[in-house]
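Progress note, sequence design subtask.
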């Protein structure tokens, strides 16, 4: 997840939203099999796997401040391209700077409500402001890494006598050769994803500037924060009164570090980490902050999103005979999508109401509400 802020207000762009969505859709490739404008050699791709968003910034796609406001500086050390198959490299070779399919999106939003003025000010957010949220990951490369290692890890589970209580799980001891190889490949996929979002953000700024006849500097477009939600990381947490090194798996969860944490940028240390929780394309998304309760109760984590209440198949069936795009348009939301069935699969009713979910994590104290963001324009893969 990545969130951009701007100096623009809803009133300044509302009449141009449909055109802006169209230009963004044409400027940012999206969907299954989409190819980016950047042509990478395999050596370039290996460098991205090792350097992540740093590579993108080194190529002129952003600034050092972007890295400061990205989890792990946009790069996890220790990624080894040799741990990633040739098939995964080939799948990812042409997909840098592209938006994924399914629930991935680029959304133009406006800040509809502020709950915490101090935190909102620290994050550069104000009521009525235009923001852009980007949700996408490591594309075909990451999908192939998962496919490649699933069989390896399943065999390892039997090899090391690990009893699993769900057939969807696979595991290996962290210091085993199988786990070390997978962990290195996973780091490479995460780095690829950070570079991908960095490139998409850069292109988004260019499109806004061109469409609105102003420079990104004049528009005040900048990164609020970028944080992963499908990743495993080695972190230090207190368990039963003792500081321990743990492998924290966040799958459908997102990091929520409290104020003062050394991994936070200096500008956010007095507030806490920005937490980005997206909703469906018809309701809202939220910005929150991490808390001490999250550090002590959930290993510095909170929920990632609303979660589905309908399978994709069931959503398609429920949407039969409806024009989802027109329903969204009637709500004042412009939408464009690359997939024929995407709007049906991703219709608002397919998801829980994110406001209810956010209220629960806020009341539980594992993250604190800062701002509500409502959609104006959506691009789906």
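Output:
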């Amino acid at each position: 997840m990545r969130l951009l802020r701007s100096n623009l207000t809803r009133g300044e762009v509302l009449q141009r939203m449909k055109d802006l969505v169209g230009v963004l859709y044409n400027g940012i490739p999206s969907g299954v099999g989409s190819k980016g404008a950047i042509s990478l050699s395999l050596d370039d791709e290996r460098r991205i796997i090792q350097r992540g968003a740093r590579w993108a910034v080194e190529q002129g796609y952003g600034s050092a401040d972007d890295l400061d406001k990205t989890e792990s500086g946009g790069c996890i050390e220790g990624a080894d391209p040799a741990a990633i198959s040739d098939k995964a490299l080939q799948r990812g070779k042409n997909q840098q700077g592209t938006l994924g399919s399914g629930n991935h999106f680029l959304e133009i939003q406006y800040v509809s409500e502020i709950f915490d003025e101090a935190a909102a000010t620290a994050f550069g957010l104000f009521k009525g402001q235009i923001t852009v949220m980007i949700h996408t990951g490591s594309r075909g490369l990451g999908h192939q890494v998962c496919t490649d290692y699933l069989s390896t890890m399943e065999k390892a589970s039997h090899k090391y006598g690990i009893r699993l209580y769900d057939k969807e799980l696979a595991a290996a001891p962290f210091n085993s050769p199988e786990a070390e190889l997978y962990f290195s490949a996973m780091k490479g996929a995460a780095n690829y994803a950070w570079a991908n979002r960095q490139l998409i953000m850069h292109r988004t700024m260019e499109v806004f500037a061109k469409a609105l006849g102003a420079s990104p500097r004049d528009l005040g477009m900048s990164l609020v924060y970028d944080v992963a939600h499908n990743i495993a990381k080695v972190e230090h947490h207190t368990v039963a009164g003792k500081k321990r090194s743990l492998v924290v798996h966040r799958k459908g969860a997102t990091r929520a570090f409290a104020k003062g944490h050394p991994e936070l940028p200096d500008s956010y240390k007095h507030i806490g980490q920005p937490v980005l929780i997206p909703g469906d394309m018809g309701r809202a998304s939220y910005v929150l902050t991490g808390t001490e309760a999250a550090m002590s109760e959930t290993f510095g984590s909170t929920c990632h999103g609303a979660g589905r209440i309908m399978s994709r198949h069931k959503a398609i069936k429920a949407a039969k005979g409806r024009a989802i795009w027109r329903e969204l348009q009637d709500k004042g939301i412009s939408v464009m999508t690359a997939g024929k069935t995407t709007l049906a699969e991703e219709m608002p009713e397919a998801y829980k109401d994110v406001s209810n979910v956010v209220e629960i994590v806020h009341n539980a104290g594992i993250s604190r509400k800062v701002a509500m963001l409502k959609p104006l324009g959506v691009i789906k893969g």
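The radius of gyration is 20 Å. Work on this subtask will continue into the next period as scheduled.
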